[in-house]
Amino acid sequence: MDMKSLFDMEGKVAVITGGSRGIGAMIARGFVENGVKTYITARREEELRATADELSKFGQCIAIPSDLSNMEGVKAFADAITADDSAVHVLINNAGTTWGAPIEEFPEDGWDKTMNLNVKSMFYLTQQLLPALEAAATPEDPSRVINVGSINGITHPHMQNYAYSASKAAVHQLTRHLGAELSPRHVNVNAIAPGFFPSKMTSHLMDHADELGKAFPCGRLGNAEDAAGTAIYLSSRASAWVTGHTLVLDGGAVANAG
Questions:
Q1: pLDDT in 10s for each residue of the chain, 258 residues
Q2: Helix, strand or coil for residue 71?
Q3: Distance (Å, whole) CA 249 – CA 200
Q4: At 159, is the secondary structure helix, strand, or coil?
Q5: Which of 105, 111, 177, 230 has its CA at a distance of 20 to 30 angstroms from the CA of residue 185?
Q6: Which residues are catalytic?
Q7: Which CATH superfamily, name and number, covers 3-249?
């Protein structure tokens, strides 16, 4: 094994949900620039295609609009991918949503919407793409599923996002479960638990980005290189013996939580 090629992803095929913005788009750019044929999906078609057009300046990026909040949308998206590529090396389950309300007012539809997209669709898209993931896998370099969790699923969020934090804790446990179960089939499953990254979910706080960044032990917020670099590690030969784990990507926030 040439140590220089440990992080090489040239020629691989990746699927990224929630790929039109935020962490999904950050990872997509890192993949595209490193020679990965990258499919991205999201519900808002105009925004999705604009991101794909921008990333296509650096390599192959293909937009497939979808609604992953229901089984019909999950199956339709998986069918669209496998119609073009029967082998998928990397699946990034990043699509997600949140909901905030006081506990006395938290609505059932907000709970169900969050759980369905953040957990249920993640499991069933992995199920639907499993044959394609197995087709791309080798014992030396397994295929990868990377689930995007959150530090809110590890420590107290100090927000009224009850369904979100519960869903992300579920993502971490599902990752451990699938990591053990699918490893004999040469499909590694890991998760990333991000801390504070610029995104639509955090846009209302970005006017105070510098102040917020100073509260982290590393002294800043997460950026595109942090997200892409972590995903590339978990998708490359460098992490072939890593499965069932949640990698915390948070500038030291969890370690500093006490």
A1: 689 999 999 999 999 999 999 999 999 999 999 999 999 999 999 999 999 999 999 999 999 999 999 999 999 999 999 999 999 999 999 999 999 999 999 999 999 999 999 999 999 999 999 999 999 999 999 999 999 999 999 999 999 999 999 999 999 999 999 999 999 999 999 999 999 887 655 555 555 556 666 778 888 889 999 999 999 999 999 999 999 999 999 999 999 986
A2: helix
A3: 18
A4: coil
A5: 230
A6: 164
A7: NAD(P)-binding Rossmann-like Domain (3.40.50.720)
